[in-house]
Design a protein that fits this description.
By secondary structure, the protein is α/β, with parallel strands linked by helices. It contains 6 helices and 14 strands. The strands form 3 sheets. Strands 2-1-3-4-14-13-12-9 form an 8-stranded mixed sheet. Helix 1 links the parallel strand 1 and strand 2. It is globular, with a radius of gyration of 15 Å.
């Protein structure tokens, strides 16, 4: 069973629908017992880093997620991925979960072309920089769907894939041990995204 963490800031319906379309058993939960019983965990998220971190803290799930990440595959999606890093700088400085080394910074100051719109929204090709089982059914250069204004940086050792946007190599996928993160939305990325979710279910 794949547990989808419900802490009030995730796109839960489309994600669970995608997993069910693949024939995968999944459950949306905020129960520590169900998270411990799951074979894999998906940690979604949309919105602002600090607000989401506070809501996660309120659930009491932070120690559970840190413990389970040592024992089984865990994947963060979009803001869920960002919260896996050490720190985020959206409307102040906030501590992340510290499961992947690095920090989450504003994309706008890094852009070479200031006329390019932020948020980075829409389809972009993902360049695989490090082979990984997560890409078992995924080809280099396939298009995935992004919606974000902040991105993970200072995480070269953990970076699995990047997408170029305005001269910035946006961290599209990262991994540290049992913990994976994708900045894009696989549940909104068509067949390529479904294949990536299938690979995660087989990790």
């Amino acid at each position: 069973m794949i547990a989808i963490v419900d802490y009030g800031v995730g796109n839960l319906f489309s994600l669970s629908s995608s997993l069910k379309a693949l024939g995968l058993e999944c459950e949306v939960t905020r129960s520590p017992e169900r998270l411990r019983a799951a074979e894999r965990i998906i940690f979604p998220g949309v919105g602002a880093f600090g607000d989401a971190r506070a809501k996660l803290e309120d659930t009491g799930l932070v120690p559970v997620l840190r413990e389970e990440a040592q024992r089984k595959p865990l994947m963060g999606i979009c803001l869920g991925m960002q919260l896996l890093f050490d720190k985020g700088f959206e409307y102040g400085e906030h501590n992340g979960l510290g499961l992947i080394p690095g920090q989450v910074a504003d994309l706008r100051p890094e852009l070479n072309d200031k006329s390019i719109k932020v948020p980075h929204m829409g389809w972009n090709s993902l360049h695989i920089v490090k082979d990984d089982p997560l890409f078992k059914y995924f080809k280099d250069g396939e298009y995935v769907y992004y919606v974000h204004s902040f991105y993970a940086r200072d995480c070269a050792e953990s970076t699995l894939g990047t997408s170029e946007y305005g001269g910035v190599a946006v961290t599209g996928a990262a991994r540290n041990g049992n913990v994976w993160g994708v900045q894009f939305h696989p549940e909104k990325s068509g067949d390529a995204g479904l294949r990536l979710l299938r690979a995660f279910a087989e990790l």
